[in-house]
Design a protein that fits this description.
The complex is a heterodimer of chains A (136) and B (528). With 136 residues, chain A is mainly alpha-helical. Chain A has one domain: Cytochrome c-like domain (Cytochrome Bc1 Complex, Chain D, domain 2, Orthogonal Bundle), CATH 1.10.760.10. Helix content of chain A is 43%, strand content 0%. Chain A has five helices and no strands. In chain A, helix 1 packs across helix 3 and helix 4 crosses helix 5. Chain A is globular, with a radius of gyration of 16 Å. Chain B folds into four domains: 95 residues, 2-Layer Sandwich (Uridine Diphospho-n-acetylenolpyruvylglucosamine Reductase, domain 2), CATH 3.30.43.10; 124 residues, Uridine Diphospho-n-acetylenolpyruvylglucosamine Reductase, domain 3 (2-Layer Sandwich), CATH 3.30.465.10; 229 residues, Vanillyl-alcohol Oxidase, Chain A, domain 3 (3-Layer(aba) Sandwich); 56 residues, Orthogonal Bundle (Vanillyl-alcohol Oxidase, Chain A, domain 4). In chain B, strands 13, 16, 17, 18, 19 and 20 form a six-stranded antiparallel beta sheet that branches. Chain B has a five-stranded antiparallel beta sheet with strand order 5-6-10-8-9. In chain B, a hairpin with a 3-residue loop joins strand 18 and strand 19. Chain B starts with 10 loop residues before the first helix and ends in a 30-residue tail after the last helix. Classes of the chains: A mainly alpha (136), B alpha+beta (528). At the A-B interface, helix 1, helix 2 and helix 3 of A face helix 2 and helix 4 of B.
């Protein structure tokens, strides 16, 4: 991807995109740096009780950290619903329930493919859904 | 998704295979619920994902477990469909070619076995993703760069084994493979190249075997299950310079190719140069309906308006040079002078020097990102894409010939034209991105007809695809007709000798074992 293209990607995620509004180009310094995910926890992935935040960043961080594909698309969607751009990050949402998180992870939603149990095990999903499911 | 059994396999035998496999990998790593089958389906399927349904999935954690599962599959006559991480989006995701095949998900085999900065290579298992390897390199502060594909969510080995391409000097990913370990279809284990000698330290350094060299025979292949391989990496350069030209007109692609390809062939440019058309930029600016809200292709007058409005060229060349600063400067002067003979406008230039931060979307600097998949949002709904990907000689004449033909066929089907050419040296990969909403049946049906037409008309002109979706593996294989399909006949002889039960990936790239020869014409092309 080119730098110009990259800038557009970023802007598509972070700038205003309300009904039919068209996005402008942005200065190059806006491109965020790569965000290193935490190292995956050692040990049995099938064991319950993992750290939901760490597991979320490891297994969902490809798309759901700052500047990721999921974050960019969700930022646009949340802003069109009148929310602030920070709500594009799943970690900042307060309206998600654990069951909803589990359902989206396993069934997929929009541009997000369903995740297999190798992508995220049931035990890991339990921890991730507790972490993201701030609404219960 | 309901259970589809492989041909001639009873429910009892299928269950016995799963039960026996659970004893090898553990019951949690045998996945056979309806939801599991959905998770291993083609998320971008042009039509129902039940056309290419997995029967179940099994996830081994070691080469020993792979050997054991392959032996069990022979015993029960249950075919396997190996995937590295199963993220082959646009080409079938993790789904198998033949209904009921058991996906052999190698995602748990995700160890980085070696990372060598001195000789610039690594040895990895199939479950290692581009993100994983990139982060291991960062943590080790190793002076190494990756070459990543547009969608880097997937596996380093999986992408190379499927002939994926990237946009750095190491962009021809299958060429970076050196020294492969593979489980053969009978459960035997083989190592290619110098690895055929126990403990040989040159296994992942010298690219040939003593005798025939089989490394590439395991790519786009069903001759074995690759369980580890060496991958050559780019030494981190001291500096890098990106030079960006907006190319105004569609027909300019001819001189662009004739200018850049000779410099690539001579070695002055070492990058795989990616030249996308304007729509590649627009898909990330919003949704299609923001720019054109009617069905059918965006008309040419509106295209011209959009180019003007957004100050876009029809094409963009963002060429990157790597190396010591004086060398990069000298090379840049040669490239700029060559381009200036056709285009007066000065290019934009972006220098990077060791120690400077690298942005998250710098694909040409080997940073992995899944962000290009945002293009699925362009159409809206359950957006998806397939790539029609012929290879052409890297000359203006060939490229224009291909461009005009595919442009007309795509226009005749009333679909937006989104092409790119990646100049890999003496050839260019022409990728035509076809985007659709999976929930609009007529749009999907039109895409399938279009795909059929593109393959057959392109083959008549003498060009072929380098890679394709599951549903077109046979039609594309049919286009390689020299001497009554001699290459396919030879490969199938080898396949039958190595895999008498046809256990490993039947139908992959149109290679069918005798055991499943009757399946050859099933679920193919626009008619499926």
């Amino acid at each position: 991807m080119t730098r110009t293209l990259s800038r557009m990607v970023l802007v598509a995620g972070l700038a205003m995109a309300g009904g039919g509004a068209v996005l402008a180009d942005a200065p190059p310094m806006m491109m965020p740096p790569y965000i290193l995910r935490p190292e995956p926890p050692a040990g049995d992935r099938l064991k319950a009780g993992g750290d939901g935040k760490v597991l979320f960043e490891v297994h969902c961080g490809y798309c759901h950290l700052v500047g990721g594909m999921g974050t960019n698309l969700l930022t646009k969607q949340r802003m069109m619903m009148g929310e602030t751009p920070d709500k594009g990050l799943l970690a900042n949402r307060t309206d998600l329930t654990a069951d909803y998180v589990k359902s989206v992870v396993r069934m997929g939603k929009g541009a997000m493919p369903a995740q297999t149990k190798v992508d995220v095990t049931e035990a890991e999903l339990e921890a991730v859904s507790k972490y993201l499911g701030k609404a219960g | 998704m309901k259970l589809h059994l492989p041909p001639r396999v009873s429910p009892k035998t299928f269950d016995a295979m799963l039960a026996a496999s659970a004893k090898v990998v553990g019951k949690d790593w045998v996945m056979a619920s309806d939801a599991d089958r959905d998770a291993y389906s083609d998320v971008y399927a042009p039509g129902s994902s039940e056309e290419w349904p997995a029967g179940a999935a099994i996830a081994p954690a070691s080469v020993e477990e792979v050997c054991a599962i392959v032996r069990l599959a022979n015993e029960h006559k249950t075919p396997l469909w190996p995937v590295a991480r199963g993220k082959n989006l646009g080409y079938g995701t993790a789904a198998p070619r033949m209904a009921g095949s058991i996906v052999l998900d190698l995602g748990r085999m995700n160890r980085i076995l070696e990372l060598d900065s001195k000789l610039s290579y690594c040895v990895v298992e199939p479950g290692v993703g581009f993100f994983d390897l990139y982060e291991a390199i960062q943590r080790a502060k190793a002076p190494l760069w990756l070459s990543v594909p547009g969608n880097a969510w997937g596996s380093v080995l999986g992408n190379a084994l499927d002939h994926g391409i990237g946009y750095t000097s190491y962009g021809l990913h299958a060429r970076n493979l050196c020294g492969i370990e593979a489980v053969l279809p009978d459960g035997d284990l083989v190592r290619t190249g110098m690895g055929a000698m126990e403990g040989n330290p040159a296994w992942h350094l010298f690219p040939f075997s003593y005798g025939p060299t089989f490394d590439l025979a395991f790519t786009q292949s069903n001759l074995g299950v690759v369980t580890k391989a060496g991958v050559w990496l780019q030494p981190a350069p001291e500096t890098s310079l990106e030079i960006v030209w907006d190319i105004p007109n569609e027909e300019d692609i001819a001189w662009v190719i004739d200018t850049i390809a000779p410099l690539k062939i001579s070695g002055l440019i070492d990058q795989n140069v990616f030249v996308p058309s304007w729509l590649g930029k627009m898909v990330l600016k919003g949704q299609r309906k923001d720019f054109w809200d009617k069905p059918g292709a965006i008309p040419e007058w509106r295209v011209q308006e959009l180019l003007k409005q957004y100050k876009l060229g029809y094409w963009q060349v963002a060429l990157r040079l790597y190396g010591e600063e004086p060398v990069v400067k000298a090379r840049a002067e040669v490239v700029k002078a060559a381009m200036k003979r056709h285009l007066d406008a000065a290019p934009a230039e972006h220098w990077w020097r060791t120690g400077d931060p690298i942005g998250q979307y710098e694909t040409t600097m080997g940073v992995p990102s899944a962000v290009p998949l945002q293009m699925s949002d362009w159409i809206g709904g359950r957006g998806a894409h397939m790539g029609f990907s012929p290879v052409v000689p890297a000359t203006g004449t060939h490229v224009m010939d291909q461009l005009k033909r595919s442009r007309k066929i795509i226009a005749d089907h009333d679909v937006d034209f989104y092409a790119s050419f990646t100049i890999g040296g003496r050839f260019a990969n022409n990728i035509n991105m076809l985007m659709y909403d999976r929930d609009q049946p007529e749009m999907v049906a039109n895409m399938r007809r279009l795909f059929d037409a593109l393959i057959s008309e392109t083959a008549k002109a003498g060009y072929a695809e380098y890679r394709t979706h599951l549903g077109w593996m046979d039609p594309v294989a049919d286009t390689f007709g020299f001497n009554n399909q001699a290459l396919r006949r030879m490969t199938e002889k080898v396949k039958n000798a190595l895999d008498p039960n046809g256990i490993v990936a039947p139908g992959k790239q149109g290679i069918w074992p005798a055991a499943y020869a009757a399946q050859r014409a099933g679920n193919v092309g626009g008619k499926a």
